[in-house]
Amino acid sequence: MLVNQFLFLGAILFCIGVYGVLARRNAVLLLMSIELILNSVNINLVAFGALWHANDPSNLSGQVFALFVIAIAAAEVGVGLAIVLMLYRTRRSIDVSEVDLMKG
Amino acid sequence: MIGVGRVLAADLLVAQNIAFYLIAVGMVIAAVRVVTVKNMVHAALWLVLVLGGIAAQFILLAAEFIAITQVLVYIGAIIVLFLFGIMLTRAPMDRSPDLDHPKQARVVGAAIGLVLLAVMGYALWDGFEDRQFGQILVQRTAQVSDSIFSTYLLPFEVVSVLLLAALIGAIVLARRD
Predict the structure, then answer these.
(1) Interchain contact A96–B (C-beta under 8 A)
(2) Lower CB count within 10 Å: N or C terminus of chain B?
(3) Would you call A69 an interface residue with chain B, using a CB distance cutoff of 8 Å?
């Protein structure tokens, strides 16, 4: 298998996630797009990890970093959804284009 | 015997490639549905398909522990959190028209995505061209744990503290008072 197969899959998913962040207005769907981006990065990390591991079997840095990314993504979703719930409670809407209190 | 082994290895490689492309096409279609579909619950369910496909790609890369973690954490926990979020914000369960920005903003978003894809595709092809993986060895769970608890012990502890902080932060934010 080519290394680039996995890297291109990661790049395509990343770009779809970026489109989602720019095009969606609903805060929960925005968080889902961010999950797409984080997962595409994980594909890259694990692919590079497999490449390194084939040369040096004691090196598993790629997988360990992917695990850290998963842990941080879980924390991000937890805090993000708490913020979305607060937003809904105060404004009865989770449309991010209406959250413009700090706009100059 | 060596000849037989070589044929089997080549067959396995063809099977891996076919599996990769089938799963990859399914994942890209599902990802596009996640960012375009008009029903929030359907978006979460399409996201399940993308995340499951990523777990399958990890299996193809012989990374067993992270594939199982992906299923446990993402499909098991994060999707349920998303569905909770959708239901707690009383989103309509059927099609809703106001999930996206207006058309011109979406066109700009698509253009930015395509430019990004072109730049990344050029950089990746420039850097790796047709480099092969060679023999992908199974990365065993015991080796991963050895690596986490020796080389990466300090970052692991920092991530633990970060998770605790995020937990407390989420409780404080979501508490009704």
Answers:
(1) no
(2) C
(3) no
